[in-house]
Specification:
The structure is a single chain. The chain is of the alpha/beta class. 46% of the residues lie in helices and 10% in strands. The strands form two sheets. Strands 3-10-9-8-7-6-5-4 form an eight-stranded parallel sheet. It has a two-stranded antiparallel ribbon with strand order 1-2. The longest helix has 33 residues.
């Protein structure tokens, strides 16, 4: 039987299957699962795929420009690698591999607070990521992370606000077996053991090492999340971050128009329409359904980014048409990283680019600024 990594992948769904075949079971369930019965997780994909586009013909679409501006820079396309926790456990030094791919592709990367590779290690590869920040009870530690982002030269800070308490994730509860069970899972995945378990050392939670240590297992990490994430956070805490961070500040986890208006009042530079990939409150709106309402509330005054369910370049065009200025990929690049490392991430970005060009050509637009509600089939 051929190795999973040798099978041909034509889309993100193929990379998901390859990731499932390569990762230990508990790691695949962590990346793939959502909260409760995963209704919102499914809606993210299904609602976005149900958005109908308006095909137009006999227009000159011979010269298509995918470039887009965000936070003072021009990017090759309006797509970035969104923050994915523990991605350094999916492939050897995974966040570093992803950073190198993002640099080559001319797109941004947002590094998670709970990455395996530290911000310092990722920035040292030559492509400084944007940094995603969580609020924890220890404000001195939060302040130290902000300072680290400044020291490493991060251009933007993404403050995730939809994790006041962790969602209930049934798959994780079922999959997190004891140490003996995990050893059995490892032995079934020899390519992962060699790539990550041996060649990928040291294995740690890079940004959290000062408080969880250098070798905290996944079970300890999840306990730390439950014990330390701060349910008392309010907009006053956003103001506290704004005082410390003078660069672009983005609030990630906005679904409600009133919260979008509050973000405007807080003086931030952008919001990410997101339900945390369906991993927090199950049953809330999909990103695709929330996006137009939030975009209307923002009314072009700050940037609107979106994540949740984008699996193709066609999905990116749909999100732009619904009101986003920029789209962050999550599972799409994480599956590819787990399946084939940086090569897989690079291939997914190539697929996104090709699929965007096709979608734009067949809706009659030639640049990203032209992708708006007029390309939607509203009938």
């Amino acid at each position: 039987m051929p190795d999973a990594g040798m099978r041909k992948a034509a889309n993100v769904s193929d990379y998901r299957a390859l990731a499932k075949a390569r990762l230990p079971h508990f790691l695949f369930e962590y990346i793939d699962g959502g909260s409760y019965e995963e209704v919102t997780l499914r809606r993210n994909v299904e609602d976005l795929q149900s958005v109908a586009l308006r095909q137009r013909v006999l227009r000159d679409v011979s010269d298509i420009d995918l470039s887009a501006e965000l936070f003072g820079k021009t990017w090759a396309m309006p797509v970035g690698l969104g923050p994915v926790g523990l991605s350094g456990l999916y492939a050897r030094r995974g966040e570093v591999q992803a950073a190198k791919v993002a640099a080559a592709a001319g797109v941004p990367q947002v590094l998670s607070t709970v990455s395996a590779c530290s911000l310092r290690e990722v920035a040292a590869c030559g492509h400084v990521p944007w940094f995603q920040l969580y609020f924890v009870k220890d404000r001195d530690f939060v302040a130290s992370l902000i300072e680290r982002a400044k020291e490493e030269g991060c251009d933007a800070l993404f403050l995730t606000v939809d994790l006041a308490v962790p969602g209930s994730r049934y798959r994780d509860a079922r999959a997190l077996t004891g140490a003996t069970g995990r050893i059995g899972e490892y032995l079934k995945r020899p390519s992962w053991i060699w790539d990550v378990g041996i060649r990928g050392r040291p294995i740690s939670l890079g940004n959290l090492e000062p408080i969880v240590g250098k070798s905290a297992p996944l079970a300890d990490f999840q306990k730390w999340i439950h014990d330390n994430f701060d349910a008392s956070v309010t907009w006053a805490d956003v103001a506290w971050v704004r005082d410390q961070w003078k660069g672009p500040l983005v609030i990630k986890g906005i679904l409600d128009p009133d919260d979008a208006r509050a973000a405007l009042d807080a003086g931030v530079d952008g919001v990410v329409v997101s339900n945390h990939g369906g991993r927090q409150l199950d049953g809330v709106s999909s990103s695709a359904r929330a996006l137009p309402r939030v975009a209307d509330a923002i009314a072009g005054r700050i940037s609107v980014l979106a994540d949740g369910g984008a699996r193709s370049g066609l999905d990116v065009v749909r999100m732009l048409a619904l009101g986003a200025n920029f789209v962050l990929l999550g599972r799409a690049w994480a599956y590819a990283l787990a399946a084939r490392g940086g090569e897989g991430v690079s291939h997914v970005l190539q697929l996104i680019e090709v699929e965007m060009r096709v979608a734009m050509a067949l809706t009659g637009v030639t640049n990203v600024a032209e992708i708006n509600g007029d390309v939607l089939d509203k009938e």
